[in-house]
Design brief:
CATH superfamily: Class I glutamine amidotransferase (GATase) domain
Helix content: 10-25%
Order of helices and strands: EEEHEHEHEHEEEEEHH
Shape: globular
Number of domains: 1
Structural class: alpha/beta
Strand content: 25-35%
Strand order of the largest sheet: 4-3-5-6-11-10-9-7-8
């Protein structure tokens, strides 16, 4: 249960959006239920997190995201995994200190995008894990946060910018993921590129939350070290 203590950090997003839907009103940032509470949002998973489960989705049954979730549990974190098709709300997100968005299959409802916009306006951590995208597909959530992911590519992240997250990292598998659109302006701090130079991993500044992104979910599910340990030290 979320405690009643709040930090008065407001989001300044008012009025109507282009579709005429009400934009979120200023909100307060409650304390998370626990500083060690982690939510895996796999509600838009296209098969990278929950495979081979097809529903019902049970976190104790074998699935591709299990190794990463169990690694965090072994470090003492309480990890909840949301099923594909479940719903996301601001209240649900803010109950957790860390949210891992796993997969980007299907369009996001405007209410979901608003919930994430509010979440990153609070002192939290978001790990945004992408997936492959078709020629006309977009990652709505990544776009809304200023990370223009496109395409589908497989390779290895082999070029890194010096940072706490990349310390000691020499290579990270990249399995059918998306990359930052090189034709669109982006404010992201790129931390990792594929062998061909495409940017696929980094940080998105400008939010109260720490926002890390990588265009692929599959590779991180293999628990590449020391990357996973570095991410925990950086943002958990």
């Amino acid at each position: 249960m979320v405690r009643n203590t709040v930090v008065p950090l407001a989001i300044v997003i008012l009025g109507l959006n282009a579709c005429g839907d009400p934009a979120p009103q200023p909100v307060l940032c409650p304390s998370s239920s626990s500083p060690r509470a982690v939510l895996v949002d796999a509600t838009h998973d296209g098969g990278a997190w929950w495979f081979p489960e097809g529903g019902p989705f049970i976190s104790t049954q074998p699935h591709q995201g299990e190794a990463l979730a169990d690694t965090l549990r072994a470090k003492g974190y309480a990890v909840d995994e949301l099923a594909r098709g479940d719903s996301i709300s601001l209240e649900r997100l803010l109950a957790y200190q860390v949210v891992i968005r796993a997969g980007n299959y299907g369009a996001y409802a405007m209410s979901e995008l608003h919930a994430y916009e509010a979440f990153v306006a609070c002192p939290r951590t978001l790990l945004l894990l992408g997936d492959l995208l078709g020629p006309t597909q977009h990652d709505d959530l990544a776009d809304s946060l200023g990370v223009p992911l496109i395409g589908a590519i497989t390779g290895s992240i082999s070029a890194f910018v010096a940072h706490q997250i990349t310390a000691g990292v020499t290579a990270v598998p990249f399995i059918a993921g998306s990359y930052v659109d090189p034709t669109r302006p982006a404010s992201a701090q790129v931390l990792g590129r594929l062998d061909n130079g495409l940017a696929v991993m980094g940080l998105q500044p400008g939010y109260a939350a720490k926002v890390f992104f990588i265009g692929d979910t599959n590779g991180l599910e293999t628990v590449p070290q020391p990357l996973v340990n570095n991410l925990v030290s950086w943002g958990f």
